[in-house]
Amino acid sequence: MADISFLMLIFFLMVTTMDKEEGLSRRLPPIPTEEQKVEDQKVNRRNIIQVKINSNDRLFAGNELMDVSQLKDKIKEFLTNPNDDPNLPEREMKPIEGFGEYPVSKGVISLQNDRGTTYSKYIEVQNELIRAVNEIRDEFSMINYGKKYAKLDEDRQEIVRKCIPQNISEAEPKDVKKR
Fold first, then answer.
1. Is pLDDT above 80 for 68?
2. Vertex 71: Cα angle to 67 and 77 (nearest 5)
3. What percent of the residues of the chain are helix, what percent strand, and what percent coil, each to the nearest 5?
4. Tens of pLDDT, residues 117-136
5. Could you give phi then psi for residue 105, rounded to 5 degrees?
6. Could you tell me if 114 and 174 are in contact, meaning their C-beta atoms sit under 8 angstroms apart?
7. What is the secondary structure of 73-84 as a DSSP string?
8. pLDDT tens across 29-53, in order?
9. How many CB atoms lie under 10 A from the CB of residue 177?
10. Would you kindly state where each structural domain of the chain is located, as residue ranges?
């Protein structure tokens, strides 16, 4: 009887799959040391695009109601500012080690959702924001190195990250129903 139960235990251990936990991969900024003062950064209004998801899973980018499929293109236009629109983010010439001077966007994506937002919509919006930044990085990499960003060596990827920063600010979820 013990042999049979042992064989059944081994069988179930072999054929059972273990679920992997999935989540968003994020690199958080380092924790400031006690000597460092934490200061509020002043950001020009034109350099911020607010992306909001309400409790009905409706998406607003800027002040426009839009579908998630339109978000990537809106963010790409916002971050690149191809026509030097005075309502879109300004760019600052910065020296990039190993590359030279490059006009880096000061654009910041401010993401805020309601407590009633579904997790699937939240993840869908996050994916579109990251997809937009990755496409801009791929375009930059193809122009300057002839390869996509993921195929570059670590030094060149670092250069691309400095030229095309991923500035996403997440605000604490709000509970709209209480107001």
1. yes
2. 140
3. 40, 20, 40
4. 888 888 888 889 999 999 99
5. -70, 140
6. yes
7. HHHHHHHH-TT-
8. 667 677 666 555 666 788 888 888 8
9. 9
10. 42-178
